Amino acid sequence: MLIRCVVYENGKKLAEIPASDIHSYVCRPGCFVWVAMFDRDIALLEEMREQFDLHPLAVEDAQQGHQRPKLEEYGNSLFAVLQMIELDGADLRVGEVDIFAGPNYVLSVRSGVERGFRDVRERCESEPELLAHGSCYVLYALMDAVVDRYFPVLDQLEDQLEEIEKRIFVVDSEPRANIQALYELKQRLMTLKHAVVPLLEGVSNLSGARVPAMVSGLREYFRDIYDHLQRLNQMIESNRDTVASATSVNLSMIAMQENETMKRLTAYAALVAIPTLIAGIYGMNFADMPELHWRYGYPICLGVMAALDGYLFYRFRKAKWL
Amino acid sequence: MLIRCVVYENGKKLAEIPASDIHSYVCRPGCFVWVAMFDRDIALLEEMREQFDLHPLAVEDAQQGHQRPKLEEYGNSLFAVLQMIELDGADLRVGEVDIFAGPNYVLSVRSGVERGFRDVRERCESEPELLAHGSCYVLYALMDAVVDRYFPVLDQLEDQLEEIEKRIFVVDSEPRANIQALYELKQRLMTLKHAVVPLLEGVSNLSGARVPAMVSGLREYFRDIYDHLQRLNQMIESNRDTVASATSVNLSMIAMQENETMKRLTAYAALVAIPTLIAGIYGMNFADMPELHWRYGYPICLGVMAALDGYLFYRFRKAKWL
Amino acid sequence: MLIRCVVYENGKKLAEIPASDIHSYVCRPGCFVWVAMFDRDIALLEEMREQFDLHPLAVEDAQQGHQRPKLEEYGNSLFAVLQMIELDGADLRVGEVDIFAGPNYVLSVRSGVERGFRDVRERCESEPELLAHGSCYVLYALMDAVVDRYFPVLDQLEDQLEEIEKRIFVVDSEPRANIQALYELKQRLMTLKHAVVPLLEGVSNLSGARVPAMVSGLREYFRDIYDHLQRLNQMIESNRDTVASATSVNLSMIAMQENETMKRLTAYAALVAIPTLIAGIYGMNFADMPELHWRYGYPICLGVMAALDGYLFYRFRKAKWL
Amino acid sequence: MLIRCVVYENGKKLAEIPASDIHSYVCRPGCFVWVAMFDRDIALLEEMREQFDLHPLAVEDAQQGHQRPKLEEYGNSLFAVLQMIELDGADLRVGEVDIFAGPNYVLSVRSGVERGFRDVRERCESEPELLAHGSCYVLYALMDAVVDRYFPVLDQLEDQLEEIEKRIFVVDSEPRANIQALYELKQRLMTLKHAVVPLLEGVSNLSGARVPAMVSGLREYFRDIYDHLQRLNQMIESNRDTVASATSVNLSMIAMQENETMKRLTAYAALVAIPTLIAGIYGMNFADMPELHWRYGYPICLGVMAALDGYLFYRFRKAKWL
Amino acid sequence: MLIRCVVYENGKKLAEIPASDIHSYVCRPGCFVWVAMFDRDIALLEEMREQFDLHPLAVEDAQQGHQRPKLEEYGNSLFAVLQMIELDGADLRVGEVDIFAGPNYVLSVRSGVERGFRDVRERCESEPELLAHGSCYVLYALMDAVVDRYFPVLDQLEDQLEEIEKRIFVVDSEPRANIQALYELKQRLMTLKHAVVPLLEGVSNLSGARVPAMVSGLREYFRDIYDHLQRLNQMIESNRDTVASATSVNLSMIAMQENETMKRLTAYAALVAIPTLIAGIYGMNFADMPELHWRYGYPICLGVMAALDGYLFYRFRKAKWL
């Protein structure tokens, strides 16, 4: 589905045009066309391929979707694949945007997520001195927007982690729920990592010593994206490390709970076993057991039982077994 | 066993020829011969070595089989070894294809798997403008087919993993079966990894800055294979990581089951021990135990036993020990 | 908030000036202005951007704060972000200093920590022959000060670790407290690592073969910082490794405590079960049980119970179960 | 101990000579001397040093032995150290061969293993067209032989691993024996790895872009060795990984056995505790316990005990606790 | 503290001189001064700095001590920091030697360890043809001595490890002591690693393709040191790996001991519970219990108890629970 198709000249919006008029603007010097598509419309992509002379392998990737993030040069044009990640409750929804950028066109194909790039277009149009850099500035602006949207996602994952951390050292926590929460959190961090890491490599080629001619004037801008990606990557790694530590702490907590359960078991068993033994002794049928005939034999016996249990209870409490 | 031997000229099929006629076509400019073999036929390979002047070390590798995937240059020809992986129920069957490619010939030797390259040949013949690139395009098409066939295999391994994941958090799951399933899955992922990773390095040499003259026109095509291999590699790594997490979760679940078993043991033991103690007390033979002579002594005693157990049961339920 | 703004000429302090006079000194050859700010004052930063012609992306970073440590070239000026770490009881407080350095100016923006750079300025002013190197020497002095302040922080973390290590092999230690202490220590080491590692890479660019023109005369000084960072990094890694070992030792200790608890349980259960069995036997109602009618039957019976328990106790002690 | 000393000319054996005649052949163009020694004979090595003008540091290494595998250039000669590994029952015996190779000599010093290089010499002599490459071909043939002999060793270690794997999932396996077997297997894999990995690096220098002049004609042969070493390395790594998995599976099995033991304990304890409680109740001495006077009170009581136990047994069986 | 200060000319000792005469020799061509110091004498170091024109940053490092091993170029001189490690019972004592080497001087500053370099000086003086290489040969000789002294230290750590390994598979070993021993051993290996690894990098710069002019004639000698360091590093890594395996084996052993303890507990509990149940049954007060009145009722009952226990004992023995 075509969303918008606009021609820009020297950083200013010239006109919104139908897709069929692209060919008459695409060769005009100083002009570039910015086309935004939603969902993989195979026929439309085929039409764009002809209008902009896109490379068949890149178009094939965009038609199939579900690519790994990457940044490829085809002659003097660039093809970028980025994953877009949105929050969907506690879960993540993963979409994709494929960007074709040549000297006089930018084509973005978004799919799988709701939020589009209307705000990016508006900000670009409000800064004509930057948009005058041409189509490569739009490429920068789109990539920058996608990368900046990773931060609130990561922030929420960090909040989830912090919540689990709070629960984990509490004595009566539910280790089973913690394990599951940590497991799912780890998977989500991995999803984010898979969006960030392959991109890191691609963007480094746009900000290093030898960059494609097309983006040479914007090296510092792409270095800024690279820097954000590195920050994301470090934060993800750090969170994954913490998840691993928390998992192992949780495991230790299970082991310790078991240990404590066993101690309590021992303690209670002793509290019952001792009077049972005494009762057994005075249940014996020996002919001559003088205690049995004492006047207060029975209450004394009960008293001894209670006294022994009281003493044991005191000892167990002191040893923190109970 | 020779399957087919066909001569192509300018991307079009010229003739299907017997092996013995190869020498009369192999020197004709603009022509190349595409030979497909099945199973390592040592004599036939020897004949091919003479026809195409193959390097003895490469032929030796093809005769022995069970090589590591690799891509080697011998003068102006290439020798590629790829592992082919087929599903065999839940298990994997590993075969091999050795491809010799020179300026005017391509020779593929397949072994160990059932599915051949008939569809590759048909697609090539249906796109003469691409086949006109010559023998190196056939090399690309064969490698692309082998790599694309890894994806459904990996998809099935991911399905197996997902199924185990579903079982793992269920309270009464069978941890022993889970462990074995995870262990076997890990081995299968390793098998796939061993097919992918060594190839990654080899293919990167066909798509980087300095490629062999023979494939220079197809750099972007080989980069596409490289990209697929990287995607596979990332997916395999991600799955291995998940298998590791799942294994550790499973271990935690075992520890927790043990803990719960122990709590239940404690609870049931208490439910029996308390009335046993009471019974012991009233089994004592003291001369003067007034309760023994109460009219409703016995039913009261039984009632107290039941009441204590009822209370304990309620407490254990509340503490989730039962 | 502006702290100070001083002009230096040939290593000597010329004058303390208000911010508005900067423009009249910044173009004087042989002079440079050193401005120190506290907290991110957005308006003031904007003013500085105009005075020193700073790059907008760098200023944006300084205005937002919470950047990853880095060292970036913008034309012939440098932009450095460093994290400042202060002890706050056992915890760490993380601040930031952003340094802009051009041929004739240095601007530092500190935030989040209390201790400033007054001592750095004083030491610089007391060594005019070094300060004569110009603004890049101030950059060095500031970075050196920040890095040197990491050492006492790391020292305290090492002290905390040593204290935990001492507790860990003690038999009756509290494993739960140890785990939590190790977990928190690991997080603190990670915080420090995140300050050090990204900087390592940046500083290596100021001390390697190809350095920016501005710092070329001070290569050995920046190599010294690099060396300190490497030492810090190795110490941090080594401590993290020790924390991991200690955590695993602690886990083993929990398992062993459990084992010992179980042995004690077994032993005590046996000490009670044996006399209970004997009591049970002599509580049987067989018509003909001669022992019951022995004269000293009862005391003998009690004696046997005590003797058996004494023997068992001796055996358990010897086997270290009790 | 000198084994043999033979002069070759243009790939053909010229004469077997005593060590003292070496000097008269070593300068003849087109000739090379191949000397094989067994055990480190310090005096003989000293003599060889003079005859072939070997570098003192290399000779020192050969005299001391127990070197790390390596490949070093000394001027226009090469010095190679390889570890030879033989099976000694289930264990490994590690020996060493040091090879000095110059334009007109090859000297091999073997020690610590039984099997020599007689078969290598015979195969070389039977292929004079290859031996005509000169001393560097002998270097290749020796190295190839050593590396090829690693494969059967690795095969046996894989067999050992497979055997352990079969035992590990069996319910009543002996976990203690498995652990020890896995531990020893891991050590053996490490031994093999230490023979392979350092060599990998050295051989890569003989097969890469810039090789020593002496071996330039045999680059593809050394690449073949390199390929074998990589295959070995991958197989070793894969086996080590499997050993690690198997160890962790074994640990899980121990935990599960414990869990099952505990369940069985609980079940059996219940089977005894219930009738004990009933017996306790009817052992009470209440004056008025009507059941005691029922005609079939005793058999009914026994029957109830049996019935309860039967029911419990059925429940435990169903829950797989017994 | 100054130990010795000697002038050498063409590899031969010229004279032992006081520190104050250094300046008159240091400019004589073909001469070099070798100064040995013990402990960081700040004043003396300051004097040396003036005599040899040392770089202030290097002198500062030597004055502070506790540096990371490193090798730095300052103009045409070298500054090396090495850690010296001595055995102190089972423990390690870590010292440091700082070496300044310029074209006509070598200055070594040793601290923290007892053993000096007297033997190095003697061996150098006994090989004047090597010492004629000048001050850089002394640098080599000192570094070689330090590195060679690591081997006996590592050997002893390996002995300690072997001893622990022997204990670990013994059934009744003390797991607590093993854990502590492994923990301490790991720390010692780490200490050694920290001496070796940073040096590895430094020395590789003296033996690679592009070396400082000063050491160019001794490249193969420094490569020898590099080779030793690599061997040490591999041995350390291998030992650390074994320590990790042994730790995990030890943990498994603890789990298995626990399992066995529990089985024994079950078995003994059963041996007591069964006769207790029987005694309980015959302690019931049913009016009509015919067995009670059998003539041999009591001995038969005891016999049945003993027989059941005997049978159980036999079964438990067979199942290896006892």
Please explain how this structure is put together.
5 copies of one chain form a homopentamer. With 322 residues, chain A is α+β, with helices and mostly antiparallel strands. Helices cover 58% and strands 18% of the residues of chain A. The first copy, chain A, contains 10 helices and 7 strands. Chain A has a 7-stranded mixed beta sheet with strand order 2-1-3-7-6-5-4, sandwiched between helices. In chain A, strand 4 and strand 5 form a beta hairpin. In chain A, helix 6 runs parallel beside helix 9. The longest helix of chain A has 63 residues, at 219-281. Chain A is rod-shaped, with a radius of gyration of 35 Å. The model of chain A has no long low-confidence stretch (mean pLDDT 90).
Task: Give a short synopsis of this structure.
5 copies of one chain form a homopentamer. With 322 residues, chain A is α+β, with helices and mostly antiparallel strands.
